[in-house]
Amino acid sequence: MMEPLVDRPGPQIGRSSLGERMASCCSYRTLQAWLPILTWLPKYRLSWLQMDLIAGLTVGLTTVPQALAYAEVAGLPVQYGLYSAFMGGFIYTFLGTSKDVTLGPTAIMSLLCASYVGGDPVRAVLLSLLCGTIQTAMALLRLGFLLDFISFPVIKGFTCAAAVTIGFGQVKNVLGLKDIPHEFFLQVYYTFYRIPEARIGDVVLGLLCLCLLVTLQWMKSTLEPPSEQDAPLTRAAHTLVWGIATVRNALVVVAASFVAFSWNAIGSPVFTITGKASQGLPPFRAPPLSETTPNGTGISFGEIVEDFGGGLAVIPFMGVLESIAIAKAFASQNDYRIDANQELFAIGLTNIMGSFVSAYPVTGSFGRTAVNSQTGVCTPAGGIVTGVVVLLSLAFLMPAFYYIPKASLAAVIICAVAPMVDYRVVIQFWRIRKLDLVPFLITFLLSFWEVQYGIVGGVVVSGLMLLYNVARPSIKVCDHGVLVMELDSGLSFPSTEYLNTVLYTQALQASPPRSVVLDCHHVNTVDYTVVNELRDLLRQFKLRGVGLVFSGLQYSVLEVLLAADLPDFRHTASVEAALTILSGNTQ
């Protein structure tokens, strides 16, 4: 198994000379941080090669049918799914810090792409370039921390809504319906309205594919791992069943294609098939920066960027968020560490280079990463094998894809996104913190209207909830003859008015006015607004003949308050000492 990769070196304290700083920047350790392959390649073993080959081949057989299916979700010709599926394996081998993660088209990124490019391949490729540029810039500027402001309820609300949108969007293909609107609510209405027009062949084939996929998935999840005590025949049977269940998508699509080919050969085309797709590898060329419409009208780069609008924020962020969440989950499971900024850099460069081979935006895939991990991959080199499998499919198998029934691809997509609808998380939110249901539900519901509105709405609500806690810190009040008020969090300018109100209502407006000990041992920073408000409070306490004493001030805060030269400012190390001072004053 690959050993944990080194962390990116931080600033070295005490290196004052320019020569030493340049030597540090050019050191082998720094090179390892930017090229993580250098940390595991020198230690590579022959036994790892065997496991990487098996894992890469298995993931490749999973990737090909999924890539074809996700291109349908993105509204693009099926070959664009494969164009997007191989570059990540090569780039991530050199730049990735997780042995398990596989980059490629996913359901969520395909849905987001469909929302902004409208099935236009030129715009999809340009979107990949722009997303990659933004992600790479974020990595170089160390802006990965911005992802921390997207809360878990927002992520879950979006993924659940995306799963429902994507899954229901494939029902029309199972029914063999055409010309159904892309807007979710219109799609629901017209799908049910046109059920009488459903093609029997597509319905039967789609349901059979769904049943087969669900059965194989159930077999894999319930199959107990073999033990050393099992007979060789038992272990061989277990391995065979597990292998079949793992590559179930490829098997189902191949079987469905054979059925469709057979019916077409006898002159009875009862299935809606994928149809002709471009054969061969995509040309390596610079992505187009402008577009010409069929009627000859030119669309400039600036106009296309303006049309993308908020997509240039939503898609890069969601892509990085999805991939890093997957990488962290499997790093924790398999006991190694990742570098989030390096992951951001790997994804960004993958999207930039992918745009040169006509790819649309990609990110980490949870399903394929799980297959990679379960198959025993040892290093990111498994991605090279996966990329080769996809390239071979593009080079030699594209004519065979003509007969793939759309109903079988729809079944693959529905089974892939179904686990994303996690109803259990609602119960967990209810039990742990009911307020988390608010951003979850807002994100979930608005995402059916427009994906970007759901994410933005959820982030805004989460931000307002966070700001409310900052502006309304918890203040614990105890009466020891003198009021003791304990601040449970820091003090910043949004909270000054609230603190002022509590002190006025509890102490200054009481009859008679009360002295107060302000326990500040949780306060680690203050700003000018806080200092100015404290100056006014000290003056108000003095006018009423009572005292305000601070206790437990941290050194950094005490230094600021002393420098501000507050009138009648008194502080003690403990609440008890402050009570003694105020009790003496009272007597």
From TrEMBL:
<keyword id="KW-0472">Membrane</keyword>
<dbReference type="Pfam" id="PF00916">
    <property type="entry name" value="Sulfate_transp"/>
</dbReference>
<feature type="transmembrane region" description="Helical">
    <location>
        <begin position="125"/>
        <end position="147"/>
    </location>
</feature>
<feature type="domain" description="STAS">
    <location>
        <begin position="481"/>
        <end position="587"/>
    </location>
</feature>
<dbReference type="GO" id="GO:0005765">
    <property type="term" value="C:lysosomal membrane"/>
</dbReference>
<dbReference type="InterPro" id="IPR018045">
    <property type="entry name" value="S04_transporter_CS"/>
</dbReference>
<comment type="similarity">
    <text>Belongs to the SLC26A/SulP transporter (TC 2.A.53) family.</text>
</comment>
<comment type="function">
    <text>Sodium-independent anion exchanger mediating bicarbonate, chloride, sulfate and oxalate transport. Exhibits sodium-independent sulfate anion transporter activity that may cooperate with SLC26A2 to mediate DIDS-sensitive sulfate uptake into high endothelial venules endothelial cells (HEVEC). In the kidney, mediates chloride-bicarbonate exchange, facilitating V-ATPase-mediated acid secretion. May function as a chloride channel, playing an important role in moderating chloride homeostasis and neuronal activity in the cerebellum.</text>
</comment>
<dbReference type="GO" id="GO:0008271">
    <property type="term" value="F:secondary active sulfate transmembrane transporter activity"/>
</dbReference>
<dbReference type="Pfam" id="PF01740">
    <property type="entry name" value="STAS"/>
</dbReference>
<keyword id="KW-0458">Lysosome</keyword>
<keyword id="KW-0406">Ion transport</keyword>
<dbReference type="InterPro" id="IPR001902">
    <property type="entry name" value="SLC26A/SulP_fam"/>
</dbReference>
<keyword id="KW-1133">Transmembrane helix</keyword>
<keyword id="KW-0813">Transport</keyword>
<protein>
    <recommendedName>
        <fullName>Sodium-independent sulfate anion transporter</fullName>
    </recommendedName>
</protein>
<dbReference type="GO" id="GO:0016323">
    <property type="term" value="C:basolateral plasma membrane"/>
</dbReference>
<feature type="transmembrane region" description="Helical">
    <location>
        <begin position="451"/>
        <end position="471"/>
    </location>
</feature>
<feature type="transmembrane region" description="Helical">
    <location>
        <begin position="344"/>
        <end position="362"/>
    </location>
</feature>
<keyword id="KW-0812">Transmembrane</keyword>
<feature type="transmembrane region" description="Helical">
    <location>
        <begin position="382"/>
        <end position="402"/>
    </location>
</feature>
<dbReference type="InterPro" id="IPR036513">
    <property type="entry name" value="STAS_dom_sf"/>
</dbReference>
<dbReference type="GO" id="GO:0016324">
    <property type="term" value="C:apical plasma membrane"/>
</dbReference>
<keyword id="KW-0039">Anion exchange</keyword>
<dbReference type="InterPro" id="IPR002645">
    <property type="entry name" value="STAS_dom"/>
</dbReference>
<keyword id="KW-1003">Cell membrane</keyword>
<feature type="transmembrane region" description="Helical">
    <location>
        <begin position="409"/>
        <end position="431"/>
    </location>
</feature>
<dbReference type="InterPro" id="IPR011547">
    <property type="entry name" value="SLC26A/SulP_dom"/>
</dbReference>
<feature type="transmembrane region" description="Helical">
    <location>
        <begin position="53"/>
        <end position="71"/>
    </location>
</feature>
<dbReference type="GO" id="GO:0015297">
    <property type="term" value="F:antiporter activity"/>
</dbReference>
<dbReference type="GO" id="GO:0008509">
    <property type="term" value="F:monoatomic anion transmembrane transporter activity"/>
</dbReference>
